[in-house]
Amino acid sequence: MADPPIHAYETLTTRDGEQVEIDTEMVPVIRGLWRLGFTTIACCQDVGEATAGVRAQSDKSLGYGADGFIAYHCGWALLKLPITDAMRLVALLSQEPVFAARVRHRWRPGSWRMNVPLVPDGLDEAALLHLPRQQLPELIESLQQQRLWRRA
Questions:
Q1: Residues 27-50, mean pLDDT to the nearest whole number
Q2: Given 44, 105, 115, 141, which residue has the most CB atoms within 10 angstroms?
């Protein structure tokens, strides 16, 4: 986490006993995903806002985080999962009426952005799922109501 932290956070304990700092708005999402057996690598409740905050606190270049990057990512939450878990989550969400179109159709208002970065050896081990921050309550509700659990 940045010092001081950009977003309020809560410290959670992973299945492996590791202490991790999770943005407050992401805590119920992460707990729900863990309950369903997903592995998470990272998350952020607003990537653009966090990047701007980190940039403002640092006197050296981040290597990313130009104005365009920040503008593009403002209002977008992030989930970083191993590729297999990301694919499983997207498959489950594609069966949820509220999320089906959002994860099946790219570049529409409200659609999720999903990518796997290229690395020198091929593909990264993790997928980045960006979703509009305003959808977090619906995602939390779906996870809490265990609608996804029945199909997991």
A1: 95
A2: 44
